[in-house]
Amino acid sequence: MGERIEISHRAMTRDMFSRGSVRAAKWVVGKAPGLYDMQDVLGLK
Description:
Mean pLDDT: 91
Distance between the termini: 34 Å
Radius of gyration: 15 Å
Largest sheet: none
């Protein structure tokens, strides 16, 4: 009671987000319709 845990992330530029978007777009080409996340894209699952 009276406590909370916070995790935050701050980016100074959008560069990393755009790189991830391009990587995900390239990865998804040819994949079957479905639900994917960045763990799939990065091979973490």
